[in-house]
Amino acid sequence: MTLDTVRIDGAMGEGGGQVLRTALTLAMLTGRPLEMVNVRANRPKPGLQPQHLTALRAAAEICAADTRGDSLGSSRLTFTPRRKPASGEYRFDVRDAANGSSAGATTLICQTVLLPLAFAGESSTVTLLGGTHVPFSPPFEYLQEVYLPALASLGIRSEARLLSRGWYPAGGGHWVLAVEPITMLPARTWTDRGELQRISGIGVATNLPSHIPQRMVNRAANLLAELQVPCDLRPLRERSKAPGAGIFVLAEYDGARALCSALGRPGKPAEQVAEEACRALLALHRTGTNVAVDPYLGDQLILPLSLATGESVFTTATASSHLLTNIQVVQHFLNASIRVEQSAGRAMITVRGDGFHV
What we know:
By secondary structure, the chain is an alpha/beta fold. The protein is 32% helix and 28% strand. The protein contains 9 helices and 16 strands.
């Protein structure tokens, strides 16, 4: 049976890479051919950049897809799966798409292939090389501490292990993702995060003096003292391909987790890096206990909950443009029903999933 082609305008909604990643994930899972025009049309550098091209090639390898337009800068592509997603051992290196050097965000490549591999029937291992800590993308710690635990609550068992950090712009990071098989996803409710129990985190510097992570941690501890909960922040000094620094602060609530971070750059004081992450965390904390999910996780929950069986509900501070765009893409592929109710300082998202299973 020939499945209908899904045609998507990449300029829809926020018009960025998330349109492509969500569409590729759903094309892999449903087996439906994808045709996309205006890829990343709303970005300063439109078309496929190294991380997007790597995600496309990774998706093609997993389901033996025929592709057209798989080249740097391409604004139009077709993607035709020839088999269901196959489990196995995979290796995806952003450098292969960037002619030798790139810090393209490997965490976003992971988000493209994780769900299809979870439904592939057997365990898989994915080695990813490139950027692990890149502006405007989730750092490795967010994936490890927030995104993967959220998927685990839906029964998706996966583990991420960092071997070396890849800062922007040098890249050179290296990590491994292990994914266990599932057959279906249950519905889930996240509407109350509960009380804050503890704060933990790390201030990291690679190929830089040890006082830098210590200063980040000291400043963060002072700023977060007002929360009056146990706070375990540790300085780390490591080696990697290039110098880099960042702080990653995890808030653990009774029923939710949130991580805020900030990256250093030349000329930016360590204290300023800590202040950026802590201000974000304090602002998130002040939204109240009935806001269960941070906006970034809210974006990413749309896809798995649209595949789930039954009705799921979650709350977040606002229905971001990324979240609304993900809904648009999902509804090109699935029969999921999604309702967004926005009130002052709180959005409630109700998702009646498609009941996808293998």
